[in-house]
Amino acid sequence: MQPSPVKLSFKEQMHQAREEAILQATCRLLGEKAYDAMTMDDVANAVGIAKASLYKHFASKEELCCASMVQILGKVHAFLSTVPADLAPQDKLRALVRWSLERLIGNHMPLLPSRNTALRTVLMADNQYLHALVTVSDQIGQWITQAQSQGSVDPALPPLVVLYTLYARACDPVVGFLKEGGQFSDAEIVELVLKTCFDGLRSR
Question: Is the dihedral of CA 47, 48, 54, 57 positive or negative?
Answer without folding.
Answer: negative
